[in-house]
Design a protein that fits this description.
This protein is 30% helix and 40% strand. The chain is of the alpha+beta class. It has a single domain, classed as START domain (Alpha-D-Glucose-1,6-Bisphosphate, Chain A, domain 4, 2-Layer Sandwich), CATH 3.30.530.20.
Amino acid sequence: MGIVIENEFTVAATPEDTYALMTDVERVAPCIPGAAITGKRDAGGYDATVTLKMGPMSLTYKGLIEIVEQDDAARTAVMRAKATEARGQGTVQATLSMEIGDAGNGSSNVKVGSDIFVTGRVAQMGRGIMTDVAGKMIGEMAKAMEATLLAGAEAKARGEAPPPSVAAEAPSAVGIAADITKSKLKGLFGGNKD
């Protein structure tokens, strides 16, 4: 099953610092929920794992991630990932296009376009759940990136090396499903009142 997801978020850090983090695979990986770099390849690219919790299912994918295009002047990059399920027949291939712009006041506007093709158990979850999980993952990634960049800026101001990246919290598909159900029920029975 293939899906295309467009996300946009703002990070309270300069476009230069945000772009530097987004194009440093080893630093940005911990900001992605469930992701970890496990090695670096001689020809470029990185071995990585991503673990997703989908209700009672826990899926681990192992594969390769690499930046295949990068334009420092325009602050754009394209990252490609290919992985297979550690236990099972599932696969995932993703191309992520990133563009970092100036949002003013020292903040950055980040646009991420994801073209994802999945097979196996996760594909059975359906397009809606997959889109919602991806959206939640991007939201957690944005929070972790902002915390990482803030900690790095504070360390730089003190003349220290930046601390390790902040690890993102992985969203739960059950929690997302509950949010969707709650939203649909609110829509049916009285609008979006809280």
